[in-house]
Amino acid sequence: MSTATAPAAKQAPAPGTPRPDGSRSVWHRVKDFEPPTRFLPVFVTFALLVGMFGVGGARYDGFADPQTVLSLLTDNGFLVVLAVGMTFVILTGGIDLSVGSNVALSTVIAAKTLQMGWSPLLVVVTVLVVGTVLGTLMGLLIHYLDIQPFIATLAGMFLARGLCYLISAESIPITDDTFSTWAFSTLVLPGGYYVSWSAVVALVPVAVAAFVLASTRFGRTVYAIGGNESSAMLMGLRVASTKVAVYAISGFCAAFGGILFSLYTLSGYSLNAVGMELDAIAAVVIGGTLLTGGRGYVVGSLLGVMVLGLIQTFISFDGTLSSWWTRISIGVLVLVFVVVQRLLTRRQP
Amino acid sequence: MADTLKPPTEVPQTSDDPTQLVVRRGPLAAALSHQLVWPVVALVVLLAVNVAADPGFLAIRIQDGHLFGNLVDILRNSAPVLVVAIGMTLVIATRGIDLSVGAVAAIAGAIACTTLVDSASQGAAATAIIACTYALAVCVLLGLWNGFLVSVVGIQPIIATLVLMVAGRGLAMLVTDGQITTVNNDFFSGMASGFVLTLPIAFVLAVGVYALTALITRRTALGMLIEAVGINPEASRLAGVRSRTIIWTVYVFAGLCAGVAGLVIAANTNSVNANSLGLWIELDAILAVVIGGTSLAGGRFSLTGTLVGAIFIATLARTIASIGIPPEANYLFKAIVVVVVCLLQSPQARGALRAHLAPARSPKGGARA
Lengths: 349, 369
What we know:
The structure holds two protein chains of two kinds.
Chain A: H1 26-31, H2 40-59, H3 66-91, H4 99-115, H5 120-144, H6 149-167, E1 172-173, H7 177-184, E2 186-189, E3 193-196, H8 197-215, H9 217-227, H10 229-234, H11 239-265, E4 267-268, H12 276-286, H13 298-318, H14 324-347
Chain B: H1 27-32, H2 37-53, E1 60-63, E2 66-69, H3 70-93, H4 101-118, H5 125-153, H6 157-176, E3 181-182, H7 186-193, E4 195-196, E5 199-200, H8 201-218, H9 222-231, H10 233-238, H11 243-269, E6 271-272, H12 281-291, H13 303-322, H14 330-345, H15 347-361
């Protein structure tokens, strides 16, 4: 396993005849451009997305419409945020099973505190703090007590779900004016297209995460831990704080996703988001992130969520397919990606 | 990849730990260090809580030649988790995990029920046997599939079984056509509600699976080979152990166990709901295995521990119901159990505890590193 901190981008050989001054023409540069192989999985996912759009557009009326993409974002904004957090965790070679329960807990806390008359801003802050604290606790368990991520986040999952029930076993509607305004406000784009503001907000963590992973010391450490934790430790990288931080980030993202989800459903319910952790993991895998850690991109996860959403759109456009085909096709997609990843990584030393 | 580099947890932490030399180990300490002590103590404490809340909790009466009482209920309710957990124990012993068991259980229930409903003589015992055989055969196939992905393709167990966990419920819905299928077959429902030798059939069935597994793994070399594969697959392969076949086999076995559990659950309600049958049973099963002292790092397992663990989980559910806490709080207690068990198993936590206790025993504090 190579750490991704090593510069993987090789200079493409230049068969085009160089000009006397050493530079090459734009045409040659375009012709000889080879994307680094590390971006290949993301391109595959993107190609899959485009292909699915093509097939959908050919089969169903009104499918190949920009509004479909925007609706995808509106309907899956919370999942995008979850997938961002999950990407951090999986990049270090861990896993976070608690995100679904964390979303449910966030919706319940938000609904309950709004019902008690807290100001919306305070509610948002509270939810984010609770989610982050939960994630941090799991990170501490995982790093300092050497408990497997799977088990530690399983405990977090039970804990969050249990807290939901303690707060309220019934669904609480959100009637707060500010929340309703946030929920229904849409961004109207030229051409009559629209997208909900919560979906636009969901893209902010993607951008921030992409920047952090690509160009900060923290991001490099995340990749290094996923490549080889012992090596990262020996290199003197801050393994401990980074490992705790990725779970804190995942918790924060889950809480953020929870707020978006409560805007989407305008209610808080302890049975919300059952199994959403599986969707988030599936999106990350389909986005080309290696489950052993060390390789992957947040943008891939975004595309992965879009693929998942598009499957659902497919099924709702078709009308004859039953809803359970969603789960089957997600499973098949995960399988294909995992097997291909396995074959690709096997070939590399 | 990272956990291969850490010291294996099964290495006793006593020999190389200087603080341990101070402490003398008497027979009591030796007894306390037996791996079954803590699960059994926890179970006894839980039962004591119940008795404190309801003095008649342990009472068992005989009615119509069957045993009735809270304890019997607990045993019957523990059956599905126990069967799944036995399969899971062997998988975890090879350093794997099987997340798909809940989905496999749902598929088993779905196939058995739809076969029963579609057959001409729904009530006949022979039909039930055919339906169950059919369901278990499919579960073996699903286990073969999981084992293939893990042992031949070489995908991490969590991910390989995640595929079926995600897709499996969809497949179960496909079988039942999204309906809640209800069946009417006395033989089939007898699997959950019937009694044999005054005990619930479900529990007898589960204990039968337990006894058979214990016999096969502990009276032959198989158990040792499974542990060898769990400690180091590559080394055991070089030593002549067919690690690939063994890993494949344990996943098939886990699939079969999940199928049996699915049949018992379906029989209990005489129906199958593909969405909810066996939901989260994989987590309960893993919890039972962990409570029983089997290390998630692989390399050693305790079937008896798993038995105690499964009964503990069923007792916990019953306790929460009987002392008047809303049943939803079950999750909260499970979270606490997971954390406590992990802390007890974690060498770091034990080391920290020891380092904390040692200066208290020797006031000079020389033991603190």
